[in-house]
Write a structure and sequence with these properties.
The complex is a heterodimer.
Chain A: E1 15-19, H1 26-33, E2 50-53, H2 65-75, H3 86-97, H4 112-126, E3 130-134, H5 142-157, E4 161-165, E5 176-179
Parallel strand pairs in A: 1-4, 1-5, 2-3, 3-4
Chain B: H1 2-17, H2 20-39, H3 43-63, H4 66-69, H5 71-75, H6 78-84, H7 89-119, H8 123-151, H9 157-182, H10 184-213
Helix pairs in contact in B: 1-7, 2-3, 2-7, 3-7, 3-8, 3-9, 7-8, 7-10, 8-9, 8-10, 9-10
Chain lengths: 181, 214
């Protein structure tokens, strides 16, 4: 048993910050919220459309960054009829994480930090109301962490919710703390 | 639906780009070339066993890409991202079967023409072999994807894949090779075996992929 008796609710515009030492089940909690793991007992209610940023980038190494992100953007369930086309969403997300100039570079040539930002761009491009971020600050430099905080704030200001599992400090104003272990 | 088409297109592109298709075809032709060396250059004998040789070689070639069909996507988090987007693993497995067949079936049927020439098969035998391959390779592709999903994450997955897949492919081999001079009945049985594999494999593979996430 990793953890038990955990209960929380994230309102629109809200945030949850999952913290605790290594191996205590932060990633597992995020995976349960994403519907990838079944909890041994209990209930999870989530909007059907959510975006996950996990340790693996899940971007095809041989493809240009823009095309790799576009593949996922076409698979994203469209949240609203007014929402922009997949191409426009990817372009905007690349702009937001500062990777627009290297959209044509194959994913395998990206650095660790750039790969993390690319995974973040996939989350931004999804337009999902719920973001599930597993250690999003890993491998990011100081400026990129500030950018991550800005993106989360913008997402919440637009009524989106976010759950973040992290051992690095990330500014999440008014976040509900969930401390494991 | 458009999502599954995007998934199929992606898998076909990866199969081409990684050279997996060319490798499997080269292996297929090599196996068929080995037989004349082993049994001797007896034209009549080669023409008689040639159809069966092509089927056995096709089965071995189908084994080549099994390790790469599901494993890389499970490791790189692609399957997780598909599941988060509400795509069932059975649907993803079905898309992978279609993509794998597109990159394996038609090229193999073209290579079989070459192999028939090397073995000196008479034209009517070649016709029967091609018809059998057209019916049997979708079943073979389905079996390959299901096997790949089952062995993903195991150490020495390639070796285990052979042990899992080859016994299950025996009915395809029997009715495939049998259809060459067995007439319409054998072709129907081959079609039945192929259909069973195609209908069952997406669910077997989907359940295995789902279990692999946990």
């Amino acid at each position: 048993m990793l953890f038990e008796h955990i209960s929380f609710e994230v309102p629109p515009g809200g945030a949850v910050s999952v913290s605790g030492p290594n191996g205590v089940g932060k990633s597992s909690l995020i995976r349960i919220a994403a519907g990838l793991l079944r909890p041994a007992d209990g209930e999870v209610t989530c909007p059907p459309h959510r975006a996950l940023m996990a340790e693996a980038a899940a971007l095809d190494a041989a493809r240009p960054l823009g095309a790799a992100l576009h593949f996922w953007a076409t698979l994203d369930p469209a949240p609203a009829p007014s929402s922009a086309s997949a191409t426009a969403r990817v372009a905007k997300a690349l702009e937001a994480v500062g990777l627009a100039p290297i959209a044509a570079v194959p994913v395998r040539l990206l650095s660790t930090g750039q790969r993390r930002r690319a995974a973040l761009a996939r989350v931004v491009a999804s337009d999902a109301p719920l973001w599930l971020l597993d250690e999003p600050a890993n491998g990011l430099d100081v400026a990129s962490v500030a950018m991550l905080e800005r993106l989360i704030a913008t997402h919440r200001a637009g009524g989106g919710a976010v759950a973040v599992a992290t051992h690095l400090p990330i500014a999440l104003p008014d976040a509900i703390p969930v401390v494991l272990g | 639906m458009s999502g599954l088409l995007a998934l199929i297109a992606r898998d076909v592109r990866i199969a081409w780009a990684s050279g997996g298709i060319v490798n499997a075809l080269a292996f297929f032709l090599l196996v068929t070339i080995l037989f004349p060396f082993a049994v001797g250059p007896d034209t009549a004998l080669l023409a008689r066993i040639g159809g069966g040789v092509i089927w056995a070689a096709a089965l071995l070639a189908a084994l080549m890409p099994v390790e790469r069909l599901i494993g890389p996507d499970a490791e790189s988090g692609v399957l997780d991202q598909l599941a988060v987007r509400g795509i069932s693993m059975a649907a993803a497995a079905a898309a992978k079967i279609v993509a794998h067949w597109l990159g394996f079936g038609p090229p193999l049927m073209i290579a079989a023409v070459l192999a028939a020439g090397l073995l000196g098969l008479p034209p009517q035998t070649l016709g029967a072999v091609e018809l059998g391959l057209l019916i049997g390779t979708p079943g073979l592709a389905a079996l390959a994807v299901a096997t790949s999903a089952l062995v993903t994450g195991l150490r020495g997955a390639g070796a285990v894949a052979g042990l899992v897949m080859l016994p299950l492919a025996v009915p395809l081999l029997i009715f495939g090779a049998g259809s060459i001079d067995g007439g319409a009945q054998a072709v129907k049985l081959l079609g039945a075996v192929s259909l069973v594999l195609i209908a069952g494999a997406p669910f077997v593979a989907g359940a295995a992929m789902r279990a692999g996430m946990e």
